[in-house]
């Protein structure tokens, strides 16, 4: 390690000043007589009827800006928020080489109004679901930064910059209600050019992280889970659940399936903080305590093709006698009726294309898996309708609303054997309904004729086999049906294995993120710490000083023109070498170019660990 010089002091600059600053004068009043006069005058002018106080702003040269408007009335708080087409820039200076032309796409997104005095707030805005997202589509992973020419297209500003000229957007106010911006998913998953002719040693920035479609899907599900409904007539508390949000697409009561109007809500548990789906049966009165105890047997059903049931109880929180079923919540899930039959869709198509046969086979294998888990526990699904089977992912099915009829029709129970055979008939009717894109009503033969024209004889034989399960001269079980479709089960299993390989590959892209975050956290703990062990210059001396220079070497690189070089590849390379403790030498130069260190990554790593361990020890205090 070699060192030369030390950081210069700036005391002389502070005491002497420059001639330009002397000619401008001081922005503050130092005359005691004027100060006393102003205080006496303020007692006359200010009273309880005075308008709200509006501080004047400081201009860029340090002189107080002149007053441009009178005091704002308190009634202005109820006025509609101002939404300009383009946010005005508080600084009139224009960066070198940046075009003043505004593209059409910049006008499309209306930004929120930023009050005076908040221009230097970090320009973040709410995403409408309790989160904060950057206000402009800035790609933080641009590898190089090139100067702009007058004829080039302007680039988006950095939303993380405190310079008001560097970004366009509004500040985030947590108490703001009313209009909400949609979640800007492109800020989480920037889409860039994907070159297919990269060499073996070249990497694309987007190849280091999760694919954009998976990231966007997870962000949407997270936003749906955290969604709240502030102004609602729903009860604030239902047993140990709160923050209810209705999930029904229709407000019309429908008692055709369960015999009672049914509603579904998303709610958060006060016990574990997790989110659950609450299915409510309106107007149900429990007459037998054994009926609700039948739900306990459903807790033993553990299948990936069945929505897990956790609890059932009665409640009067909705101003009536209601039966509540607690199940797992799967955000952004749809039913088969919504996906294929157009239920709840205002503009449903009259002639939908038939479902591909391979997709229909996948549905059959998953439903068979769920029924096999239910029947093996001595239970029956009893509700196998297109409106009660959920699609929780891409061609991913789960049987829902089980155990409801076990409670509602407890006094009129049939034998489990008959109910299980009825499940197979409902299973065949469901597949036939999906195949013809129309609910089966009074003429199933006509639907079967349409089904025959679109699908293979093997699929037709399976549907016919299921529809004949209630005949007295046959002994059909779900295990026997699974044996007959074993070839399709292997095909579905092979697809699941391919999906598992793909998700494992995508997960490997995020494998190193946690390690690098821990390394960057250690650097942030040490660098420029205000005070430690009663020493205000602790972070500027010894090993901490060249750790600060290493931070500048990694994150504060500039190009030949002096512009910031935002190169993610350089950052990842340096951090990986630091974590590995490489013997490679690097040159660290101070900002004033008076100090120079030649160190290896191994020495930097040793210094970082030593400084971080010092922070973990109790500091020495003077008594």
Summarize the structure.
With 623 residues, the chain is of the alpha+beta class. Helix content is 34%, strand content 10%.
Describe, in plain words, how this protein is organized in 3D.
The chain has 623 residues and is of the alpha+beta class. Among the domains are: 237-504, Transferase(Phosphotransferase), domain 1, CATH 1.10.510.10; 513-616, Helix Hairpins (Orthogonal Bundle), CATH 1.10.287. The chain has 19 helices and 13 strands. The protein has helices spanning 11-16, 19-24, 32-45, 104-108, 185-188, 212-225, 289-293, 336-340, 357-376, 404-408, 416-436, 444-454, 457-467, 478-484, 486-509, 513-526, 543-555, 568-580, 601-616, and strands at 124-126, 132-134, 237-238, 241-246, 262-269, 275-281, 309-315, 322-328, 334-335, 389-393, 396-399, 585-589, 596-600. A six-stranded antiparallel beta sheet has the order 3-4-5-6-8-7, with no helix packed on it. Strand 7 and strand 8 (322-328) form a beta hairpin. Helix 11 (416-436) packs antiparallel against helix 13 (457-467) and helix 17 crosses helix 19. The protein is elongated, with a radius of gyration of 34 Å. The protein starts with 10 loop residues before the first helix and ends in a 7-residue tail after the last helix.
